[in-house]
Amino acid sequence: MLAISDTHVPQRARELPEQVWREVEAADVVIHAGDWVAESLLDRIEDRAARLVAVYGNNDGPALRSRLPEVARVELAGLRMAVVHETGPAKGRAQRCDRLFPDAELLVFGHSHIPWDDVTPGGLRLLNPGSPTDRRRQPARTYLTATIARGRLDDVELHELPGRESR
Fold this sequence. Notes:
By secondary structure, the chain is an alpha/beta fold. The protein has 4 helices and 10 strands. The two termini are 26 Å apart.
């Protein structure tokens, strides 16, 4: 599994980094947690990914919102998962997500551009891959990979991309 979010192409970057494109092509499933900005990136990822699970974000206009849900819920290899762009402030996030996603075992989200890996009191795994194109105040641009098998999430790895931005 490849998880990305907040790509903001072409506003914050002209293109996804080549390393991310290689991950898109290698992954069994690509998760995108919103803020695409342009439909053209959605089209290209759909063409290159084996499977895409994606949502729209707050910077995505009517064209993307007509093609993508606000929340996606899927089961991957026995793991119940949800994807959403925004989860609200960090304070109270764990309790809020337990309440909003009671049937999920994994929640992938975006919006903040801040990588996040935590488990709520209710056992929900929360993952934010950061952004592969716009690091904002983070030390690096990032994305996540993981393995999902037999209802388990394993080998979660945060990848840092070299350089400051894609422009």
